[in-house]
Amino acid sequence: MDAAHPPGPGAGRASPALDRRGFLRATAGGATAAALASLLPAGCTGDYPQASSDGVALQALTPKEYAVLRAAAEALLAGLPVAPARVAARIDAELAAVGDPMRADMKTVLRLLEHLTLLGGRLRRFTALDGAARLAYLGTWARSRFSLRRAAYQAVRGVIYLYAYTEDSTRPLTGFPGSWPERRVPIPAYPVDFGEVR
Amino acid sequence: MIIQGTTHRGDVEDRADVVVVGTGAGGGTLAAYLADRGWDVVMLEKGGFFRAEDFTQREEDALAAFNGRRGLDASDDNAVFLTYAEAVGGCTVHYWGDSFRTPPDRLERWRTERGLEWMTPSELNPHWEVIEQELGIHICEERLFNENNRLVRQGCEALGFEGAPVPTARVDCIGCGWTQFGCAYNRKSSQLITTIPRVSRAGGRIYSDARVERILVENGRAVGVEGSLLDRDTDRPHSRIRVRAPFVVLAGGALGTAELLLRNGIGGDVVGRRFYVNPHYFVFADFGREIDNITGIPCAYEVHGFRQVRRTRSGEYAGGGYTMLCSHQSPGLTAAILPEAGAAHAERMRRYRHLGSLMSVIDEENPGRVYLDGGVRKVKYNVRGVDQLKAVDYLRNAARIFLAAGAREVWIPDVYGTVVRDPREVEARITLRSVQPNAQICAGSHFLGTAPLGADPADSFAGPTGEAYAVKGLYVADGAAVPTSVSKDPSLTIMGVARWIASGLHERAGRAGA
Question: Is the CB of residue B317 less than 8 Å away from at least one CB of chain A?
Fold first, then answer.
């Protein structure tokens, strides 16, 4: 806290603000859990065929990370008129284009999401859970007392919802009629003389 | 002349009287001032050059084309999303056009605390008057008020909260609703369509897709810059560019300027040490009827009655320290911000056309930091201390406004799915847990303070004239130079400061290279 500006009662107490190093420290137990989780029968196949079966040529994520992202999208977008695979593939392409640190962070988050189920008492990996269980598990991240678990939740759900609702297929749900150019509203742009443009 | 680096082939060597790094509110204003007075100007912009026809009004296109890090940039712990544009015209390509003069109390603070004697209304007003005329800045007319803006005004009037129509930089705006994704009609007075064409027509060269990597310094004096021309699709360099000039002006925004200085080791530990963003928290209100907030301009009305912090007799925080802007979001961004998941989230999105929205401009007292980590520019920022209390006070008063305006429900988009239906519930339901880091999506877009002006070299990057203490001939004239949060949208502050610095440079140096 800033000594010059002391907080009011309770300000900031609820959330230890962790940076990335703090995240690693806080998840040291998580790494152990991940190692343990990898020993579980449900996690032994090491087989994540989703990208292949979706026909997605991955650019940023590994097949495993893609499978986790796709599984999260399936849970978050259940019942919506948008294909989770399409959203996951779009995010993979965006991560490839934007690069690190966003790409590296998201990859870390997805791997942890897959394996930290053990901390919540679940004996199966995230991708092996059914839709309701995945949502319930994500909910524990959302309301975690650890800032970085909430951060991971916000990051995953944020990009999934962002790219799901930029799809035209979700418009019937929101009633969004499309922007003016799409509706061919005939408004000309004012002319601008930029001089020579090469 | 505008030279698009993405398609230019071969290395570039250029010379000018001044080279300006960045083409936004600060760079555009300064460059046009000097070009109008006969200076030979070169401008370098990392982002691409886009015209009205390139602005498709699709958010995914805009995020990918000209938002910094494709709209995915955030602080280290993801707690604050960093929204900024990288394009010719800088952040004015996606800004809302809100154009406030710096509040006199903030100028007075900079004058007394930073030793910036020229930070007075009488010194800056003449510059603002010119800028306001050039950009067509005027008090937002009633026809541009959409239903969300009208409802917020109505709520404020019912409660006795102070607010007013915003001064806005537009000419014949048609209120299409997509101002933050680039104006497709050339009605918003961004630098892209105002100062940049002036520089170009005056003989200046504006290189897009040009990433500056080195500030050239000889014998303690800046003599130019060099960097790479980038392929716009891949961001990969394909050629080199070097511009020599007796004056180098940094105007790449508080993030870009800090990054360049840090990479060059210029300015010491004052660079990036304070990074202000004016945290934006969002509040949504369901009015139970279509209000179509995506039409019109985002912000025609500002709630300014809470700008000043109120304290108790013993000095404890008692409220205020923020303004509120009416806001609207496109479907994708709304979906990312709204709370809940699965079917509950879908149910909220079904009410998209019923939603009003407000956004905070927290006048933070605890800034973040910009730094390099393994060669990667990063940002450490937490809303903390008294700034969390301001955020809670804002959320509560925003809820009260919407409820007074007839909202059925007010949604705090936190991970707890906080909903308020009765003003008597506001205090109990909206608490500090809503503003814990990552309890909700918080954004920052008013980047300031990373290379501040000031009379004390130990605590300032540049002196009152804008010239760096460490390197002669090196100036800063963007949000980085502004010492602290402005407590309002800072675009007109940045333009005024840049124009003041430009006038001083012109007065002292004349047409330097001629």
Answer: yes
